[in-house]
Amino acid sequence: MPRQRLSPGWAALNLYGAAFLVFLYAPLALITVYSFNANAINMAVWEGFTLDWYRTLFGMQPAGAAFDAAFTENPDRIFQVLRNSLVVALAASAISTVIGTATALATARYDFIGKRIYQGLLFLPMMMPDIVLGIALLIFFVGVGFKLSLATIIIGHCTFLSSYVYIIVAARLAGMDNTLEIASADLGAGPLTTFRRVTLPLIMPGVIGGFLLAFIISLDDVVITYFIAGVDTQTLPLFILAMMRRGIRPQINALAVLLIAFSFVVASAGLYLRSRKN
Amino acid sequence: MTSQRRRAVVLLLAPITLLLGAFFLIPLGIMVVYSLLEPGLYGGVVWSFYPYSYGRVFGWPLGGGEEFEPLYIQIILNSVYYAVITVIVSLIVCYPVAFWVSRMGPVAKNLVLFAITLPFFANLLVRIYAWLLLLRPTGAINTALMSLGLIDAPLNMIFTEFAVIVGLVYVLIPFMFLPIYASVERLDWSLVQASQDLGATPFQTFRRVILPLTAPGIAGGAVIVFIPALGNFIVPAFLGGSKVQMTGNVIERQFLQSRNWPFGSTLAMIVMASVLVLILLYALWMRRAGKSQPVGEVGHA
Description:
heterodimer, A: mainly alpha, 2 domains, 0% strand, globular, B: mainly alpha, MetI-like fold, two-stranded antiparallel ribbon
């Protein structure tokens, strides 16, 4: 099929594609611009550049002259939710990476009864609407007497993050031929040695990519965390949720921009590793 | 050797089996049980068989002081309606984009694919919040339109069905794009060429060749957009205000405000059953058509 780039049809398609990218990014760009706008009353009207919303977010004094002190956040609170979120995301993504990778190894390298059932079952936590998983976990934790805490959030996140890691690592294993593993076994290496010296280095980009993507999905999770977080174990997205419920304030823009920037950096690394060929 | 391999499989599968057994299947099972228990006076449950929460939704069976409230069927049907509209809109938006990307050179293609996937990793709340800033009366769109003199008074966009659908489409569109793109990428263009050479009009070529060949992607995208749209409660909570109610909002209230967990579980059961039926139908359709399509490349929203 010859490329017909210069025809009017392709020009229109190029324009349409560009418009689609604008649709995806314009809302995020808007928050970014707003986060530097000194106008706290009507954000849509530019009133000069300020860093005050970032400063007050962390309890620093605003530099601007006219400023309502009521806007200042309690810095202890934000550092605590930040710490909670990082603990949850690190623990949940680390555990899920181990579990997901182990599962991917089993389905890719071994035949066993019920393999198809496992493969189907692994899709379900990702396909289940978040609210269903969230309330099922809430009922379960309350029912068996688990106190809602960071631990319950970590467990909840693992149930669906393991499936993500599984899919990413399984895709990598499927695209990799196993001659090196067979050679290693033929040369007398045990299964553990073969795994450590041959398989793991080969799938490592997929494993780390899966870990990073799981980390970001955990860090950004709202709905499931919303149901299984305890009163004193708020995470960053729940903190933003509470801020949004109190109304639109310029600090939300600043916090949103920081969160987007962080998510994009980590997710980019994850996506790059996931797609990288050896 | 065989026993060694068997031991390896058991070891590798033990963690996921424990995890999904204890913290996925059992909780869902308990939810099923809860939907059939009597709500306690002060928020707990009474351990007796009580199918009447379903009666409250469907009109049967009734008893235990529960009455049929047609409102809930209405809300469930509304949610299905919003989810279907979300699927249709995101399909129409994504389909041409998939062709646009598939005809690019390798470098541009990878960059654009990356650019389309990335917004999925921006926080869900932040993406909804952005639309709050765009759509509200003093928001970016109204301010721009008014300063251009196109309108005199702000358009009423926020807290409407329109706002909810825009929000759902914006949040879920990567799920639609990826499966469609995967099937467009695999499209055999020589078949399109053959159809043109045999004298088919562009519309005939599209309907008889391109559409059937990309159908698995469309179906996959539709399923993984429909499911999270159906159970969504964050988008309607912030962009729909009190005017637009979806099943998710009612479930949330039953758990966190009214504290009627059995009734909340009943509604969640209805959502879960619809989802499972849909997945089953999709799997059967795929198997019958003998097609393979990776679903859930991205997953959750």
